[in-house]
């Protein structure tokens, strides 16, 4: 019982403003806002702390000062509120946590090896990618410099990609990938572009034409980039000479998808997997569908939340997807706060939870060259690296 009580306590602090203790909401005064230090308050408390002149306010937790204009919507919490729906049940019940732990324990073999980032170092991180040659990790987040590059050991090597309006600045990064020749490529939801940098942080290419809302992206072994356009409902293949900063071709390879976001490319077969976000009719809460295409873009398999309910007794809401070294599809599930293996395209879907404890809002997923599993947890602004024990 103590365990459950602690879990409920953690959940209360996640969904409530820690100043007024009112539950967060999607609109109005209870909308969760992020301060530059990474702490979250509701809009009403931000206004109250700023006083009638809307002057500078101090964070009630760490005393860092900021102006009201420096606050931003806390997207992970807003997405979580959307998943929970208007009834706003508790996280474990809405997320189908049964007493005996629906997800089960992690299969023997995956242990948490390293935890990076955390409050202040990363603010609302949105994407993570590994360089397949050097093992460096690139993370996009909402800080003043949008891209952090970590060494395999966990030390921070570089921070670049200024927040701003200049050509190579990044307004709102949604996802990141690293090409085989070591370029960091980012989707920018702020100006609907795709931007590429070298590892020193120099902007080498910005592609703006023709995208409605570029979202997820992943590099192919040949150094091309597959990206999803959430509003256009399309997948594109982008070919460029990043060293010279020249775009060669941007070709639509699939259309008529429903809000595609997370995307991954198998390094062995060239298969492509994408997560669609389906809005439930008339309901606030949506669901997700995982679609797998062969390298030739034939549909090989698909699995929606409803279908998974037949094999797994809980709602599944996937935000990120990756292929492991053997070509199995791995997804995050923010509902059971888990990472789940759905198997290879030909055996799709099996259901094998890889990580079912210690995550609060997993939004990103990648594998390092030495086959460690990297999970980006936006709930506590951290990167968690798991390896076989």
From TrEMBL:
Catalytic EC class: transferase
Keywords: Ligase, Metal-binding, Repeat, Zinc, Zinc-finger
EC id: 2.3.2.27
GO biological process, alphabetically ordered: proteasome-mediated ubiquitin-dependent protein catabolic process; protein polyubiquitination
Reactions that this protein is recorded to catalyse: S-ubiquitinyl-[E2 ubiquitin-conjugating enzyme]-L-cysteine + [acceptor protein]-L-lysine = [E2 ubiquitin-conjugating enzyme]-L-cysteine + N(6)-ubiquitinyl-[acceptor protein]-L-lysine
Family matches, as PANTHER family: E3 UBIQUITIN-PROTEIN LIGASE NHLRC1, E3 UBIQUITIN-PROTEIN LIGASE NHLRC1-RELATED
Protein's recorded name: RING-type E3 ubiquitin transferase
Origin species: Chunga burmeisteri (Black-legged seriema)
């Amino acid at each position: 019982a103590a365990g459950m009580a602690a879990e409920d306590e953690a959940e209360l602090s996640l969904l409530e403003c820690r100043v007024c203790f009112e539950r967060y909401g999607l609109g109005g005064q209870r909308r969760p806002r992020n301060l530059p230090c990474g702490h979250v308050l509701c809009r009403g408390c931000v206004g109250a702390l700023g006083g009638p002149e809307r002057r500078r306010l101090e964070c009630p937790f760490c005393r860092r000062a900021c102006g009201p204009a420096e606050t931003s919507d806390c997207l992970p919490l807003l997405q979580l509120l959307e998943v929970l729906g208007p009834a706003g049940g508790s996280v474990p019940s809405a997320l189908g946590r049964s007493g005996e732990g629906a997800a089960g324990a992690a299969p023997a073999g995956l242990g948490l090896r390293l935890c990076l980032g955390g409050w202040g170092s990363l603010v609302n991180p949105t994407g993570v990618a590994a360089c397949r040659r050097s093992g460096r990790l690139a993370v996009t987040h909402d800080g003043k410099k949008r891209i952090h590059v970590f060494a395999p050991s966990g030390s921070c090597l570089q921070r670049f990609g200024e927040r701003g309006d200049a050509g190579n600045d990044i307004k709102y990064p949604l996802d990141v990938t690293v090409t085989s020749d070591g370029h960091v490529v980012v989707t920018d939801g702020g100006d609907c572009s795709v931007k590429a940098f070298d590892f020193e942080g120099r902007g080498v290419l910005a592609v703006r034409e023709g995208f409605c809302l570029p979202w997820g992206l992943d590099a192919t072994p040949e150094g091309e980039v597959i990206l999803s356009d959430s509003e256009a409902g399309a997948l594109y293949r982008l070919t460029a000479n990043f060293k010279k900063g020249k775009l060669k071709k941007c070709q639509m390879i699939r259309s008529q998808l429903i809000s595609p976001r997370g995307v991954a490319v198998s390094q062995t077969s060239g298969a492509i997997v994408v997560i669609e976000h389906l809005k439930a009719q008339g309901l606030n809460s949506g669901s997700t569908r995982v679609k797998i295409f062969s390298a030739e873009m034939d549909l090989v398999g698909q699995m929606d939340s409803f279908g998974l309910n037949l094999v797994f007794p809980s709602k599944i809401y996937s935000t990120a997807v990756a292929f492991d070294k053997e070509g199995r599809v791995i997804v995050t599930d923010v509902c059971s706060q888990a990472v789940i293996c759905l198997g290879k395209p030909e055996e799709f879907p099996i259901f094998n939870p890889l990580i079912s404890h210690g995550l609060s809002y997993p939004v990103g997923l990648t594998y390092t060259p030495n086959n460690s599993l990297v999970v980006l947890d936006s709930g506590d602004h951290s990167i968690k690296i798991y390896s076989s024990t």
